[in-house]
């Protein structure tokens, strides 16, 4: 029986895996249902659509930047299982607000005055929810898993996350917004039930007073965590990855609608392919490394990601202009287009390489620090990551403001992969030096 098979059946891992999977599913079901509705039903301008998509991404990310330090302190100083139950109970209340916003949008009631503000408020609250859950889901792994299981557990969490992203994206693209309003509440309730089954995970150090001054706490946390060169390089490399991923996720709906003249189901398909690819990469890198935590494959993985980005952009550039009736292509029409297969293949390549790049880096953060410091290390990572993602959102907005086409923005993003590759190379050198 493989390590992965043992873990997926073990109570010390399965309830956490299900809880995380349902949370990621709900995040993406709600966020994509909202964005797709607004992009396809409210706005009729590529610039407006890109700005709203960037705004939604920024609203979701801001809590990570502001509250991660407190979240990391809590996760290291309190029982992680008890925190999970509190967080998942809050998700139910958040989704009641978000579901109300979706329902009002469906009815066309106070769209600008109430429906969209309610949805954005719920999205912000889900960002807060994820900020507090994020350090726990990684920090609890070395506490519940054996040393040789941590990379497998991290890979499963990442793969499960992207499978959930996949499922949430598919559902958001194919069901009506009124059904999404009900689904997000139901899933939150199921997640709360699963979270109650996570085994106790008491703190591994003496509880210290919490620092509620978020600026001071964030600065001190990042400064302390970055003292280890390997952790510093891993966090920087992960941050570049998420900045790139943020730009891609912002651009997919406007690109599908305006350049490819494709329906929201096709935009959803792009997100699905990306999520499947990251899940494949997450599992593949674990097989290549055979359970060893190493950055050996990180540089070549992210260079491959950049190469596939350039190829994806080139396919978009030569995509034939839309002719005939001004109707959006559905999935069946899109997949039989001459360039559809190369477009989807290059997108899949981007995601597979991304998954192979990022999973070992997360494993670094949970295995090369003291177990009592793991949650705070993940929280410091989240602070830097969120800053990178906000930068990615702002860069997208800035390029759009300057009139740079969506497809051309992808070339700019591909250059960032070179910086990530260099950081991965430095990390591997630091890893060998430490060995």
Automatic annotation (TrEMBL):
Transmembrane segments: 50-71, 92-109, 115-136, 231-254, 266-288, 300-320, 340-365, 386-404, 410-428
GO CC term, one of those recorded: plasma membrane
Keyword Lipid metabolism: no
Membrane topology reported for the UniProt record: Multi-pass membrane protein
Alphabetically ordered keywords of this record: Cell membrane, Membrane, Transmembrane, Transmembrane helix, Transport
Main location: membrane
KW Cytoplasm (keyword) present: no
GO terms, molecular function: transmembrane transporter activity
Places the protein is found: Cell membrane
Pfam family, one: MFS_1
CDD domains hit by this protein: MFS_MefA_like
Name listed for the protein in its UniProt record: MFS transporter
Organism of provenance: Novosphingobium silvae
């Amino acid at each position: 029986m493989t390590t992965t098979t043992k873990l997926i059946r073990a109570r010390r891992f399965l309830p956490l895996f299900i809880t995380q999977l349902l949370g990621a599913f709900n995040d993406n079901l709600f966020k994509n249902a909202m964005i797709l509705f607004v992009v396809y039903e409210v706005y009729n301008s590529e610039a407006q659509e890109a700005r709203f998509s960037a705004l939604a991404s920024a609203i979701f990310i801001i809590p990570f930047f502001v509250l991660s330090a407190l979240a990391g302190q809590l996760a290291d100083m309190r029982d992680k299982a008890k925190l999970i139950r509190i967080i998942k109970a809050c998700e139910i209340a958040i989704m009641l607000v978000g579901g109300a916003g979706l329902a009002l949008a469906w009815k066309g009631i106070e769209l600008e005055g109430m429906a969209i503000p309610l949805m954005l408020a719920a999205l912000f609250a889900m960002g807060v929810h994820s900020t507090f859950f994020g350090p726990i889901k990684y920090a609890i792994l070395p506490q519940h898993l054996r040393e040789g299981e941590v990379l497998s557990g991290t890979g499963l969490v990442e793969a499960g996350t992207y499978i959930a992203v996949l499922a949430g994206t598919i559902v958001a693209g194919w069901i009506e917004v009124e059904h999404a309003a009900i689904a997000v509440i139901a899933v939150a309730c199921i997640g709360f039930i699963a979270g109650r089954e996570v085994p106790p995970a008491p703190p591994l150090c003496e509880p210290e007073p919490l620092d509620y001054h978020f600026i001071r706490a964030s600065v001190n946390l990042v400064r302390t965590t970055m003292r280890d060169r390997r952790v510093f390089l891993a966090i920087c490399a992960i941050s570049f990855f998420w900045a790139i991923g943020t730009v891609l996720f912002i651009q997919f709906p406007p690109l599908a609608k305006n350049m490819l003249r494709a329906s929201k189901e096709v935009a959803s398909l792009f997100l699905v392919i990306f999520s499947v690819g990251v899940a494949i990469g997450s599992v593949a890198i674990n097989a290549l490394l055979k359970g060893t935590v190493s950055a050996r494959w990180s540089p070549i993985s992210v260079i491959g990601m950049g190469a596939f980005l350039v190829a994806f952009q080139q396919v978009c550039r030569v995509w034939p202009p839309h002719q005939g009736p001004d109707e959006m292509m559905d999935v069946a029409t899109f997949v039989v287009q001459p360039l559809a297969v190369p477009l989807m293949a290059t997108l899949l390549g981007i995601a597979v390489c991304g998954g192979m790049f990022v999973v070992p880096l997360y494993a670094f953060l949970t295995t090369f620090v003291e177990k009592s410091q793991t949650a705070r290390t993940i929280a410091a990572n989240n602070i830097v990551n969120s800053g990178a993602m906000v930068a990615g959102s702002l860069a997208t907005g800035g390029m759009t403001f300057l009139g740079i086409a969506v497809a051309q923005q992808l070339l700019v993003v591909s250059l960032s992969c070179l910086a990530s590759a260099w950081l991965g190379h430095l990390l591997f050198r630091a890893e060998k030096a430490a060995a």
